[in-house]
Amino acid sequence: MSNSDNLVTLSGVPGSPYTRKMVALLRYRRIPYKLILGSRELEGLPKAKVGLLPTFYFPDADGQLQAVTDSTPIIRRLEGMFPERPVRPSNPALAFLDALLEDYGDEWLTKAMFHYRWHYADDIARASAILPSWTRGRVPDDVLKASGTMIAERQIPRLRYVGSNETTWAVIEASYMRFLDAMEAHLRDHAFLLGARPGAGDFGVYGQLTQLALFDPTPMAITAVRARRVFAWTGAVEDLTGLEPTEADWFGPTKLPETLKALLGEVGRVYAPLLTANARAVQSGAEEVRTEIDGQAWVQQPFTYQAKCLMWLREEYGALDASSRAQVDAALAGTGCEVLVA
Asked: By the 8 A CB rule, do 198 and 94 touch?
């Protein structure tokens, strides 16, 4: 068996926030890995049911490789495979809050990422020029340009899937500004969302910020001016191999700072009402999600996966013992997130 057989193998690209999320997590956890850029060297590897990035390749019980794409269950799988330097807090109440913050990063902040990238001309131009260059750089200029045009033509219509449209884009942008302000305030005194060590929620937020803060020109300029700590934090989280975490680095579940409560307040202000409205639409078979977020109309297509996200959060909350549930209830009180566990 070669050394490469012992590496956790994944495929992805730098322009994918979820690829960046998982690569940074693997680095922090000091898990040996092999990243395959793009799809050119994937011969012999299985295809995922849904072609999402990153794709991980894990052996099943018979040793046959299986392609897996959902970052949250992959993180939990890695926790079982590699017990050192976990990102899931051992305290059940904190673990629930971590799951909620990861979900917010993965499923709400990605709306801002996708919106800025494919709404503004400068951002479309940069994405169209650079995204194909990461995987197809060794082709003639005209072929590379055509590839960028094809990506833009495919992605811009998909704005409707993430909820960015003429009705909602102002809500998305205002929410991103408030998130930056809240995260900047939190980073004045704390290194990570739940203390002095990163949780899965940090990597969920970080993944989206690799694009919002460090690549796409419009949100990058906003972030650098409005939230310099957030801008710097995003660069730092890329490689946390030198951090030596201890159990004492987590916040106490009954001693959460007000800056974290403010961040949870933003989750409750925008993401909680979307999750609950989307779940109702999916359950009823409605063709549109129509609700109000932050006092403004919100309309988008129903998203079955986000209905599952709400279900999983509620299942995790339901599995808590009475003491941990009380701690979560206290943390969420007044944030607007209470509807997620009602």
From this structure: no
In the numeric block, the tokens 């005194």 are attached to: 189
Burial of 241 (0-12, 13-18, 19+ CB in 10 A): exposed
Task: Dig out the tokens for 333 from the structure.
Answer: 């009180």
Of 97, 112, 272, 275, nearest to 178 by C-alpha is 112
Q: Are 328 and 115 in contact (CB under 8 A)?
A: no
What is the C-alpha separation between 159 and 119, in angstroms, rounded?
A: 8
139 three-state secondary structure: coil
The reported pTM is 0.96
CB 85 within 8 A of CB 47: no
Angstrom CA distances, 122 to 137, 187, 211, stand at 21, 29, 14
Please give the mean pLDDT across all residues of the chain. Answer: 95
* pLDDT > 50? residue 203: yes
Share of the chain above pLDDT 70, in %: 98
- Picking from 84, 133, 51, 92, the residue whose alpha carbon sits closest to that of residue 250 is 92
Q: Going along the chain, which residue ranges are E strands? A: 8-12, 33-37, 55-59, 65-68, 289-293, 296-300
Among candidate residues 273, 286, 101, 131, the one with its CA nearest the CA of residue 192? 101
Q: What is 211-248 written as a DSSP string?
A: HHTTTSHHHHHHHHHH-HHHHHHHHHHT--TT----GG
If you search the block for the tokens 């807090």, which residue do you land on?
A: 89
Say which range, 60-74, 157-171, 176-190, 241-255, has the weakest mean pLDDT.
157-171
Q: How many CB atoms lie within 10 A of CB 269?
A: 18
Among all chains, which residue has been given the structure tokens 């068996």?
1
